[in-house]
Structure formats: C-alpha cells, structure tokens
Design brief:
Chain lengths: 594, 290
C-alpha cells in the first residue's frame, strides 16, 4: 500500500505549509493572536471576579476571538490566493504536467493552507492555556485544565472558519481574482450584521442558533454581565442539539463549496488572461555558446521591424526650483498612483473606515461641547492607531518599491534630485493618510446626519483632524522615511517602528506621556483645548510646530543619508540644522509650559 | 569622446576593475567580456550609480564622476536587469521619465513620446499595462526611455540577453539607428555577434582588466591564416587540446567539430583552413592563461 505521506496530495499539502512558513503573514498573525490572548486573559475577568479558565470564560474569549479583530479577513488573506499564486508565478504548467489529479491539487492546496490558518489561530487558546500558570494578583484561576481549550477551539473557531476558508478559497480559485476575495472579506462585517438584524433576530431562539455561522447567540444572555461570578465560574457550556446541527450545516456548506470548486475548476488559461503578445524569452545566451556567422549586419531595409522615426527636439529644464517642483509633482503623482494600486488597500481602507466609525454609529456619544466635536474626537482617537500603522507600512512599501521592481537604476540615472525621489514617496503616503482622514470625516458627518445629531460643525472636524491627526501623520511619515533610509530594509524598519510604537504606548499607558516624546498627543488633549476653552491651546500649537520641525529634520537627515550619490548636500545639512534648532527651541518652550 | 583613465573598483577582496583606461569615440562601442568580467561595474560607474575607488571619466572635458547631477542630464541608461512599474501603461511610464529628465512642455513631451513609441514599435501597446509586456517589449521600452532628452552618452548593459533572434535583430536595428545621432553608445555584452553586428570599435575585458582595444575588422584580420577546422572522433579532443589552442568544440553525431588557432601551420591532416570570425578572436583572447 502506498505511504500516505508520499502521495501527491501530501506533497502539495507539505509544500503549502513550507511556502507559508516563508511568508511574513502567518508569523504576524501568530504574534497578533498571542498579544490578543494576553490582553483578553485578565480583562474583564479580574474586574468582575470571573475565573480566567472557567469553561464559560474560555468560550466567551474564543467566540470574541473568532468574530472580532478581523479574523474573517485574516482567513481571506491566508485562503484567498494559494492557487492564484501558482498562476501568477507561472509554476502552474510545471505542476499540471505532473501526474497530479484535480482533487489532489485542490484539496492539497486547501487543507495545507487551512492547516496553517488553524495553527496561527491555535496560538490564541495555547497562550491562554499557558497563562493559567501565571495568575496575577486578584485573579481567580480554577485548577489547570487543558482539554476544554482544544475542544471549544475546534467547535467554535475551527469549524466556523472552515466554511469561511472554503468560501474564500473557492471564490479566489474560480475567479483568480484575489481583490474580489479581499472585497468580500472586507464586506464580511456589514453583511453579517445585516444578516443578523434582518434574518436571524426575528427567528425563534433555536433557529437563531442553527442559522448563525458564528454561533454568537449561544453565549449566555447579557454576555455574562447578568449572572453572578460564582454561577459563571461553575457553568459548563453544553453542546446542544441545535449547536451540533449548526456545526454539521457548516461542515456541509464547506463541503458544498469545495465540491463546486472541484466541478468548476479548470487548469486551462482563461481567455481573458491570455496575453495577446508573444513571449520571447526562450533564448538565454550564455558565454560558452559558440555562434557561427548567422548574425549579419543590421538590415537597413528591414522596415517591417523598424521604421525610421525622427525624434523631435524637446527643450529640457533641469535647473532651478521650478524644474525641481515640476519633477516633484510628477513623481508624487506616480507614487500616489502606485500606492493606490496596492492590493491590500482594498481591504485596509474600508476596514479602517468601518472600525473608526463603529462607536459613533452604534453607541451614544456624550456631547459636552457639540455632537460634531464629540464625533470628531471619537473618530480621531480610533483612527489614530490605524493611521500610524498605515503610515509606517505604506512608507516602507513606497521607499523600497523601486528596488523591488528593479526600476531603481533607471530612476537613479535620471537627472531627478534626491529630494524629488524622497519627497515624492513622503507626499504620496501622506496623501493616502489624508484621504483616509477625509473619508472617515465624511462617514462621521453622514452618520451624524443619519442619527439626527445635527447641526454639523465642520470647524470641529477641521480642528481635531487638522491639529491632532495631520501633524501627527506628517511626523510619523517623516520618521518612517528616515528609518527606511537609514536601516535600508523595510522589514527591519517595520520591526523598529512597531517596537518603538509599542514601547511608547506602554509608557503612555503607565503615565509617562510627557509632551516631548508624545508626538501624537496621546491622552493629552480634549476638544476644549483645541477650541480655546481649555488650558492647553497654546501648548498644543507649539507642540504641533515642534512635531513639524522634527519631521523636517528627519526628512533632511534622510536626504543626507540616502544611498544615491549626488553632488551637493549643503542644503540638506543647512535644513537639518535649522529644523533641529527649531525643534530644540519649541521643545524648550513646551518643557517650560507643561 | 569619452575618456576613461585608470578606473579602479574593489569589492572587499575582489578587484572588479583594475586601472581601466579607454577612449570611446562617438558611435556604438562594444565592451565584450565573459560573465563576471567587470562590465556591469564599469557601466554602473559611468551611469553615476557606483563610486570608483580611483580614476577619472571625462566626456568632452567634462568630469562625469565629480559632477553626478550634471552627468545625469547627459545620460541615457538601460541597465542589464531592470523592471518597470507593472501598474502603469507604456505611455505613462515614458511620460514619467520624460518629466524626470526635465521635458516640461506638455506638447513637446507628447510628441516625443509618440515618436519614441513609434520608433520602438510599441505604438499599438501604448495604453497597455507594463505588467503584461513580454521581455522584448520591455527591452524596447527600456531603450525608448534611454533615448529621452537627446542623451550624449547612452549606456546599454547586456541588452539582448534573453531575447529571441527576432527581437535581437530588432534591437540591433534600433541601436544602429540611435548611434547615427552623434551620441556615444556603449554596448556591454557577452554576446560576440552583438558586437560584430553593431560596433565600430570594441574592447575586451576580463577579470576587470582590458585585454584588447580594437575594431571588429582588425580583430578578424589578426587571425588571417590562423584558424583551422576539423571533425574528429571524441577521444581525440583531449590530445588535440593539449597540443593546440582549441577555441571551440561542438559535438555532431558522436564526433567533435573543432576550431583551433595555429598561426600559419596546419595542426594535422584532417584540419582545413577556416574563415576567421570575431568569435574566434574573442574566445582565443579570453581563454588565454593570465
């Protein structure tokens, strides 16, 4: 009998695991899930006296984990494009010319990637399992338990994500369009909430359980807040017949998706994707090949290949500020266009907008000054964290894109100044974050109108976004540009940025949030301050100037240390010195005022 | 005239260029050498992308190494390994390069791009995204961007590697036409036929040193009455290689077709005189011991 580990299915499965082990995404997910597990371990259990390893608390955390934190989107990230990747990299003919059946290929791909996804997700319960050994003061921990973590993880998380994984995998494979998968993933929350409100809520409770793919309804009424701690700590979550029926339905749905995929999948190239142009890349002329006299002098009569075209004269202007400005506008336009074509934005932008307006859309926002002020303040605080991530990530992408697509030597040989190449990337990323701020602002205003929280005070939005978010983004983007120039590796720059941000936010959360090292003004402002009614308006304005001068210094230093050689660095040295002096001056003023 | 004097570049313990000196006249100049000979290092220095350890490069009295910003205004560069933004179209890409090269007038830029696309036979693909371009089309767009702004120095590094014969022929025609415009065109390649087809002057480089500076015709003339050809059994290859300078061997139906260099003296009876070609000169030169 053939060893199952030696079958084509096993080979494809193992290869998928291997490929994923070389990607950043699974590791990033594991770190994220581990951090979430640590955060959710004690909160709110300690506050309410809930045992952190009770059966009910394990399920509560797993259901939250399964639904929140964009997990369905992470499922799409892992499951959306395994087959598309094969077609994109051109390895598909090599695979399909081997004795591999369609089922072996598809199911090897699916289960290989699903295994990786489950491994990533398993970090969450495993971290909480380990944390049982490290209780903090006032934390109630029942005797150590292991099996419930695995049992509930499989029942509530794995089966739920099996159907989502099968759906995303099927859509991605059949359409060969990963963007569509990401759009569907981004649409998950609005669709699920709509489905819940319109379809699930009117049903009797038993049916609510059966037709809810996330099984959110099985949690105790009131999510624990209506029961005593003693009751919750002793409560054992039962698997009712309705819940089991739900899981069976989910597994059947997953099987149905995969069956449709199996029937519809074809390895043939789609007509729409076929290049209309011949690919001329077979000859790889090596030095050792001997060439007889088959090549003749260029044939001037070969008009079918080449027509004589006189190139018109075109005046060139390369000197002066105006020429530099023209080049900067052109370069920033192209950089912005390239940023817009980043596939991840299809997911990131809607997700950030939805999460930023979630509170103002569904909760009552206390309005001390005005509704607009409250809306602007609330959305700004939620948006800030996402903006930081976006600024760091997309600056890294922009700074290293030229090298990655191998256009760098061509660009570096043009008479474009280093300032043009650097500032264009800075401006493009900044425009992206500004666009996001604008979109969130428009969405917040729309919700304000929808919820009848009028009148609309545009000045409130301008104050909050213009004074808090925009200077903060200029600062962060400039620092990210400098980090990428100095570190010369985007992954190192990401690690540096995430580490620095995590360290700073830890300091802020423990009370060390002095103005001088708090460029985003975390926890240091209220709307009254911005409107002039508080005590800090002048300090905030000086602080913003301080941030802008530091940003100027960072950009000047980035220009100074950029790898591309140029003749003069005098201007960047001068600008760096002026910016640093201004930063020290404004910093001194802030120290005196605060 | 481009004057290169005593150019030296070292990477750690590897000497990529050793006192390279060349006088390059207008027209297409071929720089021929095996992989790893130092061609790309020399091209990168000329294209202002790399700093030499020592040496000077002047063009009509202008210092190319000391004044990089000015040099880039004279330069058209097609690197050996280059990419393009796949999300842009051919037209958008050329427009971007034209702007970076200082062509500010919109009408002039449009006319220039139209002519360039026409010249490289890509007019019909002008609205097509570069992600869908074939290797040959990418290479032609590469030469088009190098021609923007009437460059006085055009550097093309291994431009035909990976192209099929038809595309290579097309590319040769394109370069030949470009050279007729008073620019210095430096063609770096390891493909001898590229040089024999295109170049009026050539140099051979190996291990960072210039071995020869000549014209293709002079190189061929030097081997007059020196190249011999024979078809011999496979087992005779080793004894013949030990006695003669074998410059090529090709297996045909179990037998070897050899070309050897022997100045005025027939190696053995089975050898017949052969017409020398540039490949003979090149292989003889680069296969000589240090």
């Amino acid at each position: 009998m053939r060893n199952p580990a030696q079958t084509p299915f096993a080979a494809i499965f193992q290869n998928e695991v291997l490929l994923n082990s070389k990607r950043v995404a699974p590791y990033a997910l594991m770190v994220l899930f581990m951090a979430n597990a640590a955060l959710w371990w004690s909160r709110p259990a300690v506050q309410f006296g809930w045992a952190t390893n009770s059966d009910w608390y394990i399920v509560r955390n797993l259901l939250g984990f399964s639904f929140l934190l964009g997990l369905p989107i992470f499922t799409a990230v892992i499951m959306g494009d395994p087959v598309i990747r094969d077609f994109r990299t051109g390895v598909d003919p090599l695979i399909f010319s081997k004795p591999v059946t369609r089922a072996q290929y598809l199911f090897g791909k699916f289960f290989g990637n699903f295994f990786v996804l489950v491994c990533c997700q398993a970090v969450f319960p495993l971290t909480q399992l380990v944390l049982q050994a490290f209780p903090t003061s006032r934390m109630i921990v029942l005797p150590v338990r292991v099996f419930p973590y695995f049992k509930h993880f499989f029942f509530f998380v794995v089966i739920t994500h099996l159907v989502m994984a099968a759906f995303y995998f099927t859509v991605g494979t059949l359409t060969r369009n990963s963007k569509l998968v990401y759009v569907l993933a981004a649409a998950f929350y609005p669709l699920y909430i709509t489905y819940g409100l319109l379809f699930i809520r009117p049903l009797p409770f038993r049916w609510q359980v059966v037709v809810d793919p996330m099984l959110l309804g099985v949690s105790l009424r009131g999510n624990g807040f209506l029961h005593s701690a003693e009751f919750l700590n002793n409560y054992v979550v039962p698997y009712t017949a309705d819940m089991i029926a739900n899981r069976v339905v989910m597994i059947l749905l997953a099987a149905l998706c995969l069956a449709i995929l199996y029937v519809r999948f074809t390895i043939a190239e789609r007509s729409g994707n076929v290049e209309q142009l011949s690919t001329l890349n077979l000859s790889t002329t090596a030095g050792a090949v001997y060439y007889p006299e088959i090549f003749v002098k260029p044939d001037s009569t070969a008009t079918e290949f080449l027509r004589h075209v006189v190139l018109p004269d075109a005046a060139k202007v390369n000197e002066g500020i105006r020429a530099t400005l023209n080049k900067l506008i052109a370069a920033a336009g192209v950089e912005f266009r390239l940023l817009r074509s980043e596939r991840s934005l299809v997911v990131v932008m809607p997700l950030v907008i939805v999460l930023s307006i979630l509170e103002v859309a569904f909760y009552n926002i206390p309005s001390d000054v005005s509704y607009s002020a409250a809306y602007a303040t609330n959305t700004a605080k939620l948006l800030l964290l996402f903006l930081l991530g976006i600024a760091v990530f997309y600056t890294g992408e922009a700074m290293h894109r030229d090298r990655e697509v191998r256009i760098e030597p061509v660009l570096w040989a043009t008479p474009a100044a280093n300032s043009v190449l650097l500032l264009s990337k800075f401006l493009a990323t900044l425009s992206l974050t500004c666009g996001l701020i604008l979109a969130v602002g428009i969405a917040a205003i729309a919700i304000q109108v929808f919820r009848n929280h009028t009148p609309i005070d545009l000045l409130a939005y301008l104050r909050v976004y213009g004074l808090i978010l925009l200077p903060g983004m200029i600062f962060v983007t400039a620092v990210a540009v400098l980090a990428n120039v100095v570190l010369r590796n985007k992954h190192v720059a990401y690690v540096f940025s995430i580490g620095t941000a995590a360290g700073l936010f830890y300091l802020y959360s423990t009370g060390y949030n002095h103005w001088l090292y708090n460029p985003v003004l975390h926890g240091l402002w209220t709307y009254s301050d911005l409107a002039g009614a508080g005590n800090n308006q002048a300090a905030i304005v000086i602080h913003r100037i301080y941030c802008l001068t530091v940003a100027g210094a960072c950009l000047s230093l980035a220009h100074l240390f950029t790898q591309r050689k140029s003749d003069g660095k005098r201007w960047s040295i001068l600008l760096a010195v002026i910016s640093l002096v201004a930063a020290i001056g404004t910093g001194w003023l802030i120290s005196n005022r605060t | 005239m481009l004057k290169i004097r005593e150019l030296t570049k070292t990477y750690g313990s590897i000497q990529a260029l050793q006192d390279v000196s060349l006088d390059v006249p207008p027209g297409v100049f071929g720089l021929l050498g095996p992989n790893g000979a130092g061609k790309t290092t020399l091209m990168k220095i000329l294209a202002t992308l790399l700093e030499p350890d020592a040496g000077t490069v002047e063009m009509n009295g202008f210092d190319l190494i000391g004044r990089k910003d000015k040099t880039r205004q004279l330069l058209g560069y097609l690197p050996q390994d280059f990419g393009l933004y796949p999300a842009l179209t051919a037209e958008q890409m050329l427009d971007y390069f034209a702007k970076l090269k200082g062509v500010t007038d919109k009408e002039e830029r449009r006319a220039l791009i139209d002519a360039l696309l026409d010249r490289v036979n890509l007019s019909s693909a002008r609205k097509q995204r570069l992600g869908g371009f074939s290797g040959g089309m990418r290479q032609r767009l590469g030469i088009a961007q190098a021609l923007i702004g009437q460059p006085q120095l055009i550097i093309v590094d291994e431009p035909t590697a990976g192209l099929d014969p038809e595309e290579r022929n097309r590319f040769h025609n394109l370069l030949a036409e470009t050279a007729g415009e008073d620019a210095v065109v430096i063609l770096s390649t390891h493909i001898v036929s590229d040089v024999s087809s295109l170049c009026s002057q050539m140099a051979v480089i190996r291990r960072g040193a210039i071995l020869a500076f000549t014209t293709p015709q002079q190189a061929i003339d030097r081997l007059e009455d020196s190249v011999w050809e024979a078809t011999v059994p496979r087992e005779q290859i080793a004894p013949l290689k030990s006695r003669y300078r074998v410059i090529s061997s090709q297996m045909l139906g179990g037998q070897a077709r050899l070309r050897v260099i022997s100045k005025g003296l027939r190696p053995s009876e089975e050898f017949t005189p052969a017409t020398p070609v540039l490949e003979d000169y090149y292989f003889d030169l680069v296969n000589q011991p240090n």
